[in-house]
């Protein structure tokens, strides 16, 4: 029987690319996000690859909505084999003393609490079946802090810590826990970070060859497709032209 993967944040960037790659490898998919129109378009594309697709439209920050969506899955969707905790964002880039608490709350509530709510809803089924794989999308920002990255870096450092903690908790239950930490990937990430300012977002990816979402989707498929006795704990993936969170070789 084909396996089932649940992807948070499948409406764009890394999550969307992961959905297409996993479907290409015959996984059935539960795709989630807040933008219903995009979920519908993606569902059609995925179904062309002859897999089953369920769309669930909810905000990961809304604990009740997460519980309702994932606690009432149709019977044939309950056995989730892979949970890809991908939904996340940066909001703003500036010094702590000028920070906007709305931005802080969005990042903490999405990157951290959202990941927790979804994991809390999915992990018990994995524990019961003694089988499953949780993959958290961290970041180079969870390995280093960089100027003006304060709260985003803090949330991704927390994802790094939580991934290690989850691996310990899941150990007796035969559940794999992996973190994938990308450097710069050209997606809608910077557009969101700069509150829709296209020209600021474009500068982030100028003068060097950044990663694209498919590069991370390839890594996701690599970790998913290892034999059952092999777990990739942590993967840090950068563009060749990036050596650290702040050091780029630009033309
Ligand atoms: P995108 O902005 O392209 O995609 C983000 C996805 O997250 C969207 O599908 C969005 O869906 C979803 N999302 C955001 N907020 C919520 C929410 N409250 N509830 C549900 N879904 C939400 O960015 P990326 O693909 O680049 O980002 C994916 C992950 O990768 C994030 O965790 C990010 O931190 C991480 N990352 C990105 C890097 C990069 O350089 N791009 C580098 C390192 C890590 P919708 O808006 O429809 O809800
Ligand atoms: C996204 C990469 O360097 O903008 O997590 O924080 S960075």
Characterise this structure.
The protein has eight helices and nine strands. Helix 1 links the parallel strand 1 and strand 2. Helix 1 (13-24) runs parallel beside helix 2, helix 1 packs across helix 8 (213-224) and helix 4 runs parallel beside helix 5. The protein has helices spanning 13-24, 36-47, 63-71, 101-129, 150-170, 189-193, 198-204, 213-224, and strands at residues 4-7, 28-33, 53-57, 82-85, 132-137, 175-182, 185-186, 211-212, 234-237. A seven-stranded parallel β-sheet has the order 3-2-1-4-5-6-9, with helices on both faces. The chain has a single domain (4-237), classed as NAD(P)-binding Rossmann-like Domain (Rossmann fold, 3-Layer(aba) Sandwich), CATH 3.40.50.720. By secondary structure, it is an alpha/beta fold. The structure holds NADPH dihydro-nicotinamide-adenine-dinucleotide phosphate and 2-hydroxyethylsulfonic acid (8X3). NADPH dihydro-nicotinamide-adenine-dinucleotide phosphate binds at residues 8-15, 33-35, 59-61, 86-89, 110, 114, 137, 139, 182, 184-185, 187-189, 192. 2-hydroxyethylsulfonic acid binds next to loops.
* Mean pLDDT metric: 98
According to DSSP, the number of beta strands is 9
Structural class: alpha/beta
Summed up, the domain count is 1
Low-confidence stretches: none
Which molecules are bound besides the chains?
A: NADPH dihydro-nicotinamide-adenine-dinucleotide phosphate, 2-hydroxyethylsulfonic acid
Report the CATH superfamily.
Answer: NAD(P)-binding Rossmann-like Domain
What is the N-to-C order of secondary-structure elements (H for helix, E for strand)?
EHEHEHEHEHEEHHEHE
Q: Kindly report how far apart the N and C termini lie.
A: 49 Å
- What would the CATH topology be? Rossmann fold
CATH architecture: 3-Layer(aba) Sandwich
Overall radius of gyration: 17 Å
Q: Note the main sheet.
A: 7 strands, parallel
| Shape estimate | globular
Chain oligomer state: single chain
